[in-house]
């Protein structure tokens, strides 16, 4: 790697340093800050690829490393004594701006960035203290921020001197393991705003390469130190790395960079460093930035299936794939991967059915290519359960639904309605499968014991079919449900392995039973004598069909009092009982139902939050965005009827807006790609204005008669959307 190579192997870097020296301007330069230009570096020597071993199945191991590593710590070399403070530096900058004499500022920058040793001398809080723990990086963050904020407003020769010093540091020949001072230097250099400029990308790439090639123990320190970076600057670091990857993939000016074949390691290095920041973000509670801030939408435009197949074929080998780092792939891109993977599985299953028919010399039937579900509205749940159980081998075929006795042809609308009606009936409180918690506005599994859990398997299969067939469902499960659904993401071969069990905390319980969670939080914070004042034991009570039953949270729990010393254990066991153990059989059936349809390695790419969005869509409606993306047939968007329509719709309550969306599309949720993905269309209906609007849910199409005034349109529209269920011909 770069750190071990002889300096004569990097002639381009040497030439670059020479160029900087030749073009160096006088320290009294009064010229305003200018665009930093670095010579073309297409001939940089290629370096061997770094090892890539981060995969969703084997999470970044920094999460599991011990808090303090016992590896021998290399001795830190003595640091030069530097006494400049933040105020001294700011005074120097102000004097330089007013006088035009930048010598003091130039000297500071050229000295401070001349080597890793000097970086530590300038920015370490205490030169004599080792700072060898993950808790404190020892970096004077305020000083670093002030110095970097001023850097881009200095003359060009000052900026070049910083880059020259960074190159000197990167070219140093390393012997033995890195010291904590080296890690501090890397942490500081990563924050350099100059690396937002494409002309510095060659230097930035080598910095990223060295950081990516550090040991796992060193990465552990960098991750924990990164957690302390301020949110705005943390976001800037992430955005800079994402921009670097995007511009290397699709350069605006290809001549600015070396040929792709000469720098194949650029993107893997940057992605692995980005993984460190993602790990830091995941370990922070709450997270520093949203997980969606790590998405790189540029990847939506590459061959995602090639990435997916490379990942499937080569796994954790030296062949790089973005799927090894799924946090960088947007939910829209993951949806594409899952859809195409589903389509390929559908085609494969359908082709096998066709081959089987032909081999038995039977006449092929088009219906054999689909999962055909025939149900009666009056027996919706039982018919659906029977159909899916009987046709378990066909679950990965394209779904088609028929309501017995109705003339509707399923072009997508009947399927949507089947999902909606079935979900509505199964989740009704009278059905007893799920309990609705008003405080959290979500459903949770009923803990009542029963002889047959097949209906829970049906609900899981429905969710799987919805994802498989790109249907959004109006299901309100808490986020921990989707954590459990991915525990594990691939069904284990050993059927004795527990499924749907994961480590859940009080934070997860708050999202299901906030009142109970609040009570447990108060127990943890109680300052009095817990044993005497609460008089509780490691035992819980639940009502089942009018009978109070007790359960021990641990062996002989009814005889173990809850005390100040063991109350944390009590709370954790209580949470585990409510969210895992008490509903294990129900959730296991649900888990197997979902994975019977959605068994795919693509699930390894998903976060629990992303599974929820794929299943349910987003409940947040933006009717203005729908208005912008709506297409018209027979109308113009300037027509009076259309203007009336949008005035009425934008003035609707959220409930009526959801009813309109349900009426026109078969679902009141917004798909992953937003309103634009609905392909909503308003067509002119050449019927009497006495008629109500008509919808073709399979085409997301609303047929609107040319009503004469806004009042009539509003009245007819509300009647139509409030009485919209069933397909039939009168």
Automatic annotation (TrEMBL):
The active site is at residue 698. GO terms for biological process: protein polyubiquitination. It catalyses: S-ubiquitinyl-[E2 ubiquitin-conjugating enzyme]-L-cysteine + [acceptor protein]-L-lysine = [E2 ubiquitin-conjugating enzyme]-L-cysteine + N(6)-ubiquitinyl-[acceptor protein]-L-lysine. This is Probable E3 ubiquitin-protein ligase HECTD2. PANTHER family: HECT-TYPE E3 UBIQUITIN TRANSFERASE, UBIQUITIN-PROTEIN LIGASE E3C. E3 ubiquitin-protein ligase which accepts ubiquitin from an E2 ubiquitin-conjugating enzyme in the form of a thioester and then directly transfers the ubiquitin to targeted substrates. Keywords: Ligase, Phosphoprotein, Transferase, Ubl conjugation pathway. Its EC number is 2.3.2.26. InterPro entries: E3A/B/C-like, HECT_dom, Hect_E3_ubiquitin_ligase. The lineage of its organism: Eukaryota, Metazoa, Chordata, Craniata, Vertebrata. GO terms for molecular function: ligase activity; ubiquitin protein ligase activity. Pfam families: HECT.
């Amino acid at each position: 790697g770069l750190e071990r190579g002889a300096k004569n192997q990097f002639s381009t870097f040497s030439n670059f340093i020479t160029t900087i020296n030749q073009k160096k301007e006088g320290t009294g330069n009064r010229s305003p800050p200018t665009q930093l230009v670095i010579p073309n570096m297409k001939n940089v020597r290629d370096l061997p690829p770094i090892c890539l071993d981060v995969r969703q199945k084997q999470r970044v191991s920094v999460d599991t490393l011990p808090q303090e590593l016992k590896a021998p710590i290399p001795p830190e070399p003595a640091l030069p004594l530097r006494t400049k403070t933040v105020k001294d530096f700011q005074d120097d900058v102000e004097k330089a701006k007013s006088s035009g004499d930048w010598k003091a500022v130039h000297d500071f920058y050229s000295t401070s960035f001349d080597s890793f040793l000097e970086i530590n001398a300038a920015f370490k809080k205490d030169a004599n203290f080792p700072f060898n723990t993950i808790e404190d990086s020892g970096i004077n963050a305020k000083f670093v921020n002030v110095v970097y904020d001023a850097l881009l407003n200095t003359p060009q020769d000052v900026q070049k001197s910083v880059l020259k010093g960074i190159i000197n540091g990167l070219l140093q020949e390393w012997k033995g393991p890195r010291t904590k001072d080296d890690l501090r230097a890397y942490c500081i250099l990563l924050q350099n705003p100059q690396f937002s400029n494409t002309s510095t990308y060659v230097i930035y790439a080598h910095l990223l390469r060295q950081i990516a090639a550090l040991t796992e123990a060193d990465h552990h320190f960098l991750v924990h130190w990164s957690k302390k970076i301020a949110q705005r600057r943390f976001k800037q670091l992430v955005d800079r790395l994402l921009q670097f990857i995007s511009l290397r993939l699709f350069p605006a000016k290809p001549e600015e960079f070396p040929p792709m074949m000469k720098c194949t390691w650029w993107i893997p290095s940057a992605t692995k460093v980005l993984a460190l920041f993602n790990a830091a973000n995941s370990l922070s509670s709450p997270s520093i930035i949203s997980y969606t801030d790590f998405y790189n939408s540029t990847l939506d435009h590459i061959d995602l299936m090639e990435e997916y197949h490379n990942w499937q074929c080569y796994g954790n080998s030296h062949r790089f794939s973005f799927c090894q780092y799924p946090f960088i792939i947007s939910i829209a891109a993951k949806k594409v991967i899952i859809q195409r993977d589903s389509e390929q599985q559908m085609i494969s299953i359908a082709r096998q059915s066709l081959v089987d028919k032909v081999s038995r010399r039977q006449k092929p039937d088009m219906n054999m290519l689909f999962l055909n579900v025939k149900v009666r509205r009056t027996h919706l749940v039982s018919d659906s359960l029977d159909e899916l159980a009987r046709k378990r081998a066909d679950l990965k075929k394209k779904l088609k639904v028929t309501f017995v006795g109705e003339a509707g042809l399923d072009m997508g609308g009947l399927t949507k309605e089947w999902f909606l009606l079935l979900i509505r009936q199964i989740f009704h409180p009278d059905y007893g499968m799920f309990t609705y918690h008003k405080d959290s506005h979500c459903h949770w599994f009923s803990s009542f014991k029963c002889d047959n859990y097949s209906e829970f398997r049906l609900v899981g299969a429905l969710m799987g079919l919805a994802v498989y067939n790109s249907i959004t469902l109006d299901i309100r499960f808490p986020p921990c449900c989707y954590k459990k659904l991915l525990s594990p993401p691939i069904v284990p071969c050993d059927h004795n392995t527990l499924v749907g069990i994961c480590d859940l905390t009080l934070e997860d319980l708050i999202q299901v039973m906030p009142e109970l969670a609040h009570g447990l939080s108060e127990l943890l914070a109680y300052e009095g004598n817990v044993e005497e004042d609460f008089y509780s034991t490691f035992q819980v009570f639940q009502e089942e069909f009018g009978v109070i039953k007790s359960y021990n949270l641990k062996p002989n729990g009814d005889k173990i009092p809850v005390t100040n010393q063991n109350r944390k254990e009590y709370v954790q066991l209580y949470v585990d009982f409510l969210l895992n153990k008490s509903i294990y059989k129900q959730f296991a059936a649900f888990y197997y139902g979902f994975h019977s349809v959605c068994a795919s390695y693509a699930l390894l790419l998903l976060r629990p939050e992303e599974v929820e969005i794929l299943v349910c869509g987003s409940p947040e409606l933006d009717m203005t965005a729908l208005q912008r993306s709506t297409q018209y047939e027979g109308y113009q968007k300037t027509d009076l009827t259309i203007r009336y329509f949008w005035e009425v719709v934008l003035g609707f309550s959220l409930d009526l807006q959801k009813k309109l969306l349900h009426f026109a599309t078969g679902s009141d949720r917004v798909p992953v790609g937003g309103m634009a993905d609905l392909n909503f269309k308003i067509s002119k209906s050449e019927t009497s204005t006495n008629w109500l609007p008509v919808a073709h849910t399979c085409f997301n199409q609303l047929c609107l008669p040319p009503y004469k005034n806004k009042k009539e349109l509003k009245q007819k529209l509300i009647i139509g959307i409030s009485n919209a269920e069933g397909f039939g011909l009168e």
